[in-house]
Amino acid sequence: MIPHHSAHRTQAVLCGVIAFFLMAGAARAQSTPAKTAKTPAKTARTTSRAASKTPASSAAAPVVSVEEGLQLVKKSPKDSGAYLALGGAYRRAGRYQDAVDTYKKLVALDPNNSTGHVSLGAVYMDLKRPDEAEVEFRKAIKLNPADPAAHYNLGNFYLGKGRRDDALSEFRKSTELKPPLADGWVSMALIQGELGKTDDAIQGYKRALAIDSTNVRALTNLGNALYTQSKIPEATDLYRKALRYEPQNQEANYNMGVAFADAQIFKQALSYWKRVVAIDSTTAVAESAKSSIQILQDFLSSQQGKVVQQTPTGVTPEKH
Fold it and tell me: Which pTM was predicted?
C-alpha cells in the first residue's frame, strides 16, 4: 500500500500540470490564472473558441447546414435573414472566410442591419483580425445603441486588448439591454473571479443561468467556482449537466478528469482526458490533457501491484 503522504505527492504533481495550463492559457485571454493548484480549466470567455462558436446576436437566425443556407439564399437572394443563416452555418463549419464574404453581402444588401455588422466583426475575431472587428462592432452600436450583442462583442475586443475596465463596462451594458445576454453575465463573472470576488462571480453565473439554463459557459464556470470552495459534488454535477448539452465541450470534459484525478479514480480521469484529445488535439486544453495523461500513466506504471489509497472527495465512479 502506498503511504498516505506518497499519494498526496502524486496528486500534487497532477494538479501542478492542471495549474500550468491555467497559467499559460490559450491566446486572447481564453482562460484565467489559477487561484489554487486544483482549479479546473475555465471555459473560453469569447464566442470564437471551443466553448461557443456562435456569435452573440441581437436577432435569432435559424440554425441550418451550409447546404440549407445556400438554398435559402438561392430562394431569397434579397433576404438579409438568409445571409445571416448562411454566414452562421459557415462559421460553425469553421469556414471563416466564406462567413466573412457572406456577411459582407448581408451588410451591402442591408447597411443598417446592426446584427450583420456584429456577425461580421465576430468572424474577424475568429480570424484574429481584431482591428477590423472593432470597426464592425462600433458600426453596429452607432446603428443601434441598444443592441446587446454589439456591446458584448465590443467587450470581447477590449478584453483581448487587455482593457479590462472597458470590457466590464460593455459586458454590463449587454446584461442591462433587452434582451439581456447570459454570456454578458458569464464574462463579467469571470473577471470578478480573477479579482478574487468569488461570491460575486457565483452570483453572476447564476444570473446567466436564470436567463439561459442551458448556457454551457455558465454551467462549467459555476462548477469551477464551486470546486475552488471544495463543493466538489455540486461542481461535478454542473460539469455533467454541461456535457449533456454539449458533449464535445473540451473544458467540461477536462474538468471531469480533474475531479476524478483528485479523487484518485484514475481510470475515469484518463477516459475524460483522452476524450478531450479526441475532440480536438490542437487546443491548449488538449495539450494539458496530453501532459496529464502521460504523468498519470507513468505513475500507474510505477505502482503496478500496489494499492493506491483513494481520497474521499464526493466524486463517485461512473458506470459504463
Answer: 0.79
